Amino acid sequence: MALGACFIGGVHAQSNTAGAIAGRASAGDTITITSPSTGFTRTVTVGADGTFRFSALPTGQYTVTSSAGGSRNVAVNVGTAANADFVSAVASGGGATTLDAVQVVGTGFINPIDVTSVESNTILTAEQIAKIPVPRDTTSVALLAPGTVRGDAAFGNLASFGGASVAENQYFINGFNITNSFRSLNFSQVPFEAIAEQQIKTGGYGAEFGRSLGGVVNQVTKRGTNEFHAGANIFYTPESLTANTDNIYLRNGTLRQDNSRDEGWAATAAVWASGALIKDTLFAYALLQYGKTENDAWGNVLSPNNTNTKVKNPNWLLKMDWRINDSNLLELTAFSDKQKTDIDTYVNPLGQVAREDYIGTLKNEQGGENYVLKYTGYFTDNLTFSALAGHGEFSRAQKLITADGQNISYSGDLNQTLGGCPFILDVRPVYRRDITGAYYSRCNVAAGALLQRDDSKDTRDQFRIDVDWQLGDHLLKFGYDLDDYESVAGQANEGGLLWRYSTIDPTPLLPASGDEFDVVRQQTTTSGAVLEVKQRAFYIQDSWNVTDTFIAYLGLRWDTFENINGSGQSYVKIDNQFGPRLGFSWDVNGDSTFKLFGNAGRYALPLTPSVALRGASASVFTRRTWNFTGVDPVTGEPVLGTPRNNISYLNGEDGRGKDPLTIASKNLDPQYQDEYILGFQAALTQNLSLGMRGIYRELKAAIDDNCDYTAIMDANGLTPDEDGVWRNADGRAANIPGPGFPYCRMFNPGEDAVFVTDLYGDGNYVTNTIEGSRLSPKAKRTYSALEIFVDGSWDKFFLQGSYTYAKSKGNTEGGVKSDIGQADTNVTQDFDYIELTENTFGYLPNDRRHSFKLFGNYEISDEWSVGGNLLVQSGRPYNCLGVLDRDPNREPGDPPSQPRPIGTYNPHPYGASFMRCNNVPVPRGTAGRLPWTTNFDLNIAYRPSFAEGLQFKVDVFNLFDTQKTIGVNEVAEDPVSGLPVETYLSAAALQAPRTVRFMVQYDF
How far apart are alpha carbons 539 and 659 in whole angstroms? Predict the structure, then answer.
């Protein structure tokens, strides 16, 4: 029984779709494995060293039989090696005793300690997930693992792994990459009922995995067997049992967001069937699922509209397995995760919460269809080959329908002007609004967001091969991975324009005297391109059984990344980025009861395709300022007077393509990170294990954009004239910005950059090496953590838990910027100008110093069970973001004059984006921390004995309805006037309120 709880064998990493069985027996014996559910059988001969191994096995239950007598029943999980030992190892090396019969008891034991692995991972099966109260989505399950925290609400439902940003993870289903790599802020959602196992890799993963600095979520689906199964379930979350979200107030107590009338409900129904189409040969699992949610959001009392949102998910999955023979397997995975969202928009009178006229509907499409084919060949006892080919599509399309039935969509044509109402932005000082009233639109449907083109989508074509080769004490594994990703992208303003009202003060150094006047600025933004990222990787790794109890691991990986712009031109290519991995695992007692392990590795991340949409492809960005004589009371559009200037093209976005030679530094490295882990895991009893690991991660290089072109001007001897035109000593003007002189460039912050520039727009390039310190400090991010985790299982009770003490420190979060909710992966404002980097080193947004997690289930009887899920976390740090005041007459700490409209000082054009308030530095993370949060979920399940297969369950999430603030507005000063704003520290996100979910399910 004790041996039944152990993993013993000579392997390190398994496939990301399968597992393995390994063990020891007498040399020359034959070992046979059989799957009772599919009839799959394989036989190998035990090697001279007394070890055997079955690799690349589909997950499930197996019977293992020795020709010398005895059998074992083992469970194979994804990415692990199950043990089927037929000898009892003596830790001192004094020999082995043959076990005539070994019978595994299937319940009451902990998850075995995998002494063959140096990875940090958590595996949860469908049975375990069903027993604990957890939302049925990939991220919520991933957040059960140690070292994971929920990302900022601005990026949706995503997790941060080990201090990395939410844009640095990879997601797989049956070996196929389902990460939406356009911005790496989404992934395909397999119908959750079809998930058989979810593996969460939080560190130390082998060389077969790459393109991730955070974590890897690896899922495998359910599959058919010889036995027919079918079932159906319904999940329902009623609005009547959902608590209201707390209202949000300004610092002065004024109501900002009224949530008292918000409400919503959700329901999901699924039916499935599985079985053998041909016994022992062809198997199928099929599922149909339909989900619908509806939510009313009344929102900000200063918003001109409120919304009703309906989401529909018509999803399906098909998994087929063909056992051609015992040496050749073929698998097909096909699924659809299409989602359609309708956001109905209504007029809301300013200062009130009311629903008036219907304006229109914004229609979003997301997701698509995926097809994956995988072949596995067991060529010899020691050689296994697998090949995978997959194609996936993910829609990001949008269109809108106005109240009068007008259908508005964007085709990606830069010259197209959209219909509908433009967005209105009023940034005038409050006292001017008191005089003339606030300007806003009562008919804008998209609420200011740029409308995505109606054919926006992402397409992935992936092909990979993997080979396992056992050579004596060495398990060699090598493979090649091709991952081509294409994004059709583009966006434009609803109504074609954005109008921005502001105030000009002719006498800015005097108090307001009535000579101020208002102007309006028109802005257009259009983009459209087909972008590509080509990724190639080759890896080789060796798990070497140095002794019967000590495994050394060496992995080598080479990644190549190539980014291609909308004209089909390569603008970034990084060849053969080297990623070594080293590790060890020591089975101290020789019986898998105490394991010491450690690893060190380097991991690289490519540049996302989204960077090229405006940064490396043709786009249009114009501005022009006007006098106006009136304002339309419905649309908010101005009645134009005379123009105050000519149309200007910003950032060189004038509709011409960008020169690919000038977009990025010629010595650009990928974003990469080094990681070190040291830990142990011990079986305290046959029912309880305890583990601990220390983790240190250090970002070695980041990728972002820099917009300070003056460094190139200085390097070439150009200076600005009195009109601000940069000229050389001969008076020749630079062509800035232009197709060959981009406004911003991609670089590695803090590293010397080699920029190529068509300085004068004449086709003659100059190459300049700009010192890193001239542009920005080095990008820094470190993560250090101590994780303590427990795993317990008894006949009627199981629990898992962890405590993590962690610090995440640096001057960059990574691909995104939670401080202001900026989702422009790889092109945040962090390093645009060196002034923006001042005081930015400190504790980062994903720094949660303390995290305590505990979840489990207790079988009260054969009919009743109860589950719980507890999360206690300390709060994240927040900042005080203000203006960079360059007024030479103002001393640090002095308040700005009152009142202070535009022009009374010389602010930086980035407004309130600096780590300073009241002109005093406030270094990152020192403004304060959000409160501790506690969340407790509970469920109870009933399986009536009179109806086998029938089950009822109730889940209560956030049982005590605690709604602490988990995100705040960190901007403390008005970006124009520099005056304090009352919205500072107002809640941007709260804990989700209490909800109740009902389930009824029938299996037969």
Answer: 34
Q: What is the pLDDT of residue 110?
A: 55
- pLDDT for position 891: 57
Contacts of 232 (CB under 8 A, 6+ apart): 269, 270, 271, 272, 1001, 1002
- The pLDDT tens digits of the residues spanning 733-749 come to 998 888 899 889 999 99
Amino acid at 911: G
**What's this model's pTM, rounded to 2 decimal places?**
0.92
> Mind listing the pLDDT tens digit for each residue in 82-120?
878 887 643 334 444 444 444 443 444 455 677 878 888
Average pLDDT taken over every residue of the chain: 90
How far, in Å, CA of 448 to CA of 540, rounded?
Answer: 49
Task: Tell how far CA 981 is from the center of its chain.
Answer: 32
Peptide bond into 899 cis (omega under 30): yes
Number of neighbouring beta carbons within 10 Å of residue 629: 10
Q: Which residues does 285 contact at the CB level (< 8 Å), separation at least 6?
A: 194, 221, 222, 223, 224, 272, 273, 274, 317, 318, 319, 320
Per-residue model confidence as pLDDT tens digits over 588-603: 998 889 999 999 999 9
Gyration radius (Cα) of the chain, Å:
30
Please answer whether residues 901 and 512 qualify as being in contact, where contact means their C-beta atoms are separated by less than 8 angstroms: yes
Which pair of structure tokens corresponds to residue 392? 């996936």
Spatial neighbors of 370 by CB under 8 A, at least 6 apart, are 173, 176, 178, 188, 333, 334, 335, 336, 337, 390, 391, 392, 393
- Bridge-based pairing of strands 170-173 and 216-221 is parallel
User: pLDDT-derived band of residue 351, with 50, 70 and 90 as boundaries?
Assistant: confident
Whether the CB-CB separation of 726 and 733 falls below 8 Å is answered with yes
Which stretches does DSSP call E strand in 712-780?
A: 719-720, 726-727, 745-747, 753-757, 766-770
pLDDT exceeds 90 at position 808: yes
What is the four-CA torsion angle of 426, 430, 434, 435, rounded to 10 degrees? -80
**What are the angstrom distances between the C-alpha of 610 and each of 171, 457, 486, 488, 761?**
19, 12, 10, 10, 26
Other CB atoms within a 10 A radius of the CB of residue 771 amount to 12
Distance, CA of 331 to CA of 387 (rounded, Å):
10
Residue 761 near residue 813, CB atoms below 8 Å: no
- Tokens 């027919």 -> residue: 228
In 193-228, at which residue ranges do the beta strands (DSSP E only) sit?
Answer: 195-203, 216-221
Give the whole-angstrom CA distance, residue 499 versus residue 523: 6
Separation of alpha carbons 127 and 131, rounded Å: 7
* 716, 726 Cβ separation under 8 angstroms: no
**Maximum separation of any 2 CA atoms in the chain, in Å:** 102
Amino acid 634 reads V
Is the distance from CB of 536 to CB of 516 less than 8 angstroms? no
**Beta-carbon count within 10 A of 781 CB:** 23
Which residue pairs, CB below 8 angstroms and at least 24 apart, start in 716-721? 716/759, 716/766, 716/768
Q: Is 983 left (phi over 0), alpha (psi -120 to 50) or beta?
A: alpha
| Tokens standing for residue 950 | 């029938």
Report the alpha-carbon distance of residue 314 to residue 292 in Å, rounded.
9
Q: CA 802 → CA 135, 217, 598, distances in Å?
A: 19, 19, 19
Condensed to tens digits (0 to 9), the pLDDT of residues 316-349 reads 999 999 999 999 999 999 999 999 999 999 999 8
SS3 of 857, please? strand
Contacts of 909 (CB under 8 A, 6+ apart): none
* Structure-token pair, residue 10: 């000579």
Tokens of 732: 């020749």
Question: Are 475 and 10 within 8 A, CB to CB?
Answer: yes
Lowest mean pLDDT among 53-67, 681-695, 951-965: 53-67
How far does Cα 194 stand from its chain's mean position? 22
Q: Is residue 976 within 8 Å of 907, Cβ to Cβ?
A: yes
